[in-house]
Amino acid sequence: MKNETLLYDDGSHKCIMFSLEDEEHQDYSLSVNQFLIIQHESAVLIDPGSEGIFSELYDAVSAHINPQKIKYIFFSHQDPDVAGAINHWSVATSAKLVISQLWVRFMGHFGLMDMDRIIGLEDHGARIKFGNDFLQFIPAHFLHSPGNFSLYDSRSKILFSGDIGAAIASPQNLNKRVDDFEEHRPFLEGFHSRYMASNRFCRAWVECVRAYDVSTIAPQHGSLFQGENATRFLEWFEAVQGGEERCHELYGLKK
């Protein structure tokens, strides 16, 4: 499948990236990645996206595992490119739906009525066992959503970072992996300086992430950061100047 990238496979644990877009509206939509973790006969689906790609993603997932074996569906935040098809997935699977507690009260607006299916994450995050390994929900609040999380898979050492690391219109997106961080950096700057709340939150997230052995950073938009490029990204993101630092500029006020 041309829109599918195998990120990790050790025979019993597999991570797959899908890069499916709503082709009907692709002229004014963002390039989006969706992720699937499989261990034996259990799976986790990450940021499955909008209603427009539901059928295609369902078929893509089905090629790897019966969707009824999906144990958790994780939504890093509430945006429609992350959670727009939440009601479809709730009907098509029996999975628990994991999202920040801040967004649980809004789920009815997505058409989801079975609140017993939802796991609302507390602000400090959580760890759940997944086979012999664990999944860690790492706080990423205000980067850019006030209720936002990244997900770390301890087996593959992949950090699914949501909008952190998103690149807009980078030609390297075609490769799906960043080869040269400095060439890729200009495609990060505009998005992060506008959507990240402040440098204080950027630094806090990096401090949390460095507690884990991360080999790959996989954002929801754009390309993968692997090895040295993952390290370079963390160093860069730690210094990002966000909305707080640009407040006067954004409001047109004098400093």
Order of helices and strands: EEEEHEHHEEEEEEHHHEEHH
Shape: globular
Strand order in the sheet with the most strands? 1-2-3-4-5-6-7
CATH second-level architecture: 4-Layer Sandwich
- Which fold does the CATH topology refer to? Metallo-beta-lactamase, Chain A
Span of the ends, CA to CA: 52 Å
| Portion in beta strands | 25-35%
Folded structure, characterized:
The protein contains 8 helices and 13 strands. The chain is globular, with a radius of gyration of 17 Å. Helices cover 24% and strands 25% of the residues. α1 (54-62) links the parallel β4 (42-46) and β5. With 255 residues, the protein is of the alpha/beta class. The mean pLDDT is 91. It has a single domain, classed as Ribonuclease Z/Hydroxyacylglutathione hydrolase-like (Metallo-beta-lactamase, Chain A), CATH 3.60.15. It has helices at residues 54-62, 80-83, 86-92, 181-184, 186-195, 199-209, 228-237, 247-251; strands spanning 4-9, 13-18, 34-39, 42-46, 70-74, 96-100, 118-121, 126-130, 133-139, 149-153, 158-162, 216-219, 225-226. The protein has a 7-stranded mixed β-sheet, covered by helices on one side. Strands 8-9-10-11-12-13 form a 6-stranded mixed β-sheet, with helices on one face.
Helices and strands in order:
Layout: E1 4-9, E2 13-18, E3 34-39, E4 42-46, H1 54-62, E5 70-74, H2 80-83, H3 86-92, E6 96-100, E7 118-121, E8 126-130, E9 133-139, E10 149-153, E11 158-162, H4 181-184, H5 186-195, H6 199-209, E12 216-219, E13 225-226, H7 228-237, H8 247-251
Parallel strand pairs: 4-5, 5-6, 6-7, 11-12
Antiparallel strand pairs: 1-2, 2-3, 3-4, 8-9, 9-10, 10-11, 12-13
